[in-house]
Amino acid sequence: MKVSEHIANADNTLFSFEVLPPMKGKSIDSLYAHLDPLMEFKPSFINVTYHRSEQIFKKRSDGIFEKIDIRKRPGTVGICAAIMNHYQVDAVPHLICGGFSKDETENALIDLNFLGIDNVLALRGDAPKNEKVFVAHPHGHRFAIDLVKQIDNLNKGIYVEDDIVEGVKTDFSIGIAGYPEKHFEAPNLEIDIMYTKEKMNAGADYITTQMFFNNAKYFEYLEALKAANINMPVIAGLKPISTKKQLSILPSVFHVDLPTELSMEIMKCKTDKDVEQVGEDWLVMQCKELIAKKAPVVHFYTLGKPQIVYNVMKRIL
Question: What are phi and psi of 83, to 5 degrees?
Fold first, then answer.
């Protein structure tokens, strides 16, 4: 079932989780161990992130260093199929612009369609760790809207190769990212929302937000979207805080603010175990308010911390 259908058919707030593919060489069993406890809460869908290649320098036998591409977390398409088969729950693969050509993207979409996966989250993706700015694949997309257009075209039976006549039409529900505190590259929230509306008009049908720790930012974002005549459902993305280091890492990497009250409580903690409890309590507070105000979906970025999310779910359900 499509994400858009899950939301349309729901009377109450739904829940979903996001996971990373295992590192290359690792078993999928580690992912199952991560998800098994969370399945108690019957998530409506599970997101699986997508990862571009990274460039590393490897020393050859002649002593010369050679630059090579390596994907550390491959397998998103296969993992989505495995999750759907193993748990009988819908999977939402991320697709990104960075590092992929239009043909590679189309082939991934064809594979997803063959597997009966009818959801995708279309993202531009970030620049590689060793690069300051995002650079598109020479035969790929520079912006997320172009990726949305390609997926929407395939839904209409329009392929990259223009000599394909009467091609099979796919039927993907297309999600996009939203930023309650604006995308860090946007000059302001108004411009960011303008781009969001363009993606809606190009075929996107729901938004999943970047993590936020202040619910007021989410509700203000909803009002701003409404004022711009953007009527897509907005899934609330939440992440548990578990270490003191995240006080500086999260604002730096994800360009989000941490509320003063939360920051002060974390600073009082003596151990990361104490931080986990503060993070759990804060997440419970966020969830209860979002549920009370009828957020369509609360989406947890579990990313290595399923126990905190499990504890939160036990406390709010």
Answer: -65, -45
Q: Where are the alpha helices (DSSP H) in 52-93?
A: 76-87
Tell me the CATH number at 42.
3.20.20.220
What is the tally of structural domains in the chain? Answer: 1
- The pLDDT profile of the chain, 317 residues, written as one tens digit per residue, is 999 999 999 999 999 999 999 988 899 999 999 999 999 999 999 999 997 765 555 656 666 665 556 566 789 999 999 999 999 999 999 999 988 999 999 999 999 999 999 999 999 987 666 667 777 788 999 999 999 999 999 999 999 998 888 899 999 999 999 999 999 999 999 999 999 999 999 999 999 999 999 999 999 999 999 999 999 999 999 999 999 999 999 999 999 999 999 999 999 999 999 999 999 999 999 999 999 999 999 999 998 889 999 999 999 99
Would residue 282 count as lying in a domain? Answer: no
Please report whether residue 263 resides in a domain. Answer: no
Contact in structure between 150 and 199 (CB atoms under 8 Å): no
CA 252 vs. chain centroid, Å, equals 18
Quick one: which of 256, 262, 265 has its CA closest to 237? Answer: 256
Q: In which domain, by residue range, is 108 found?
A: 3-240+298-304
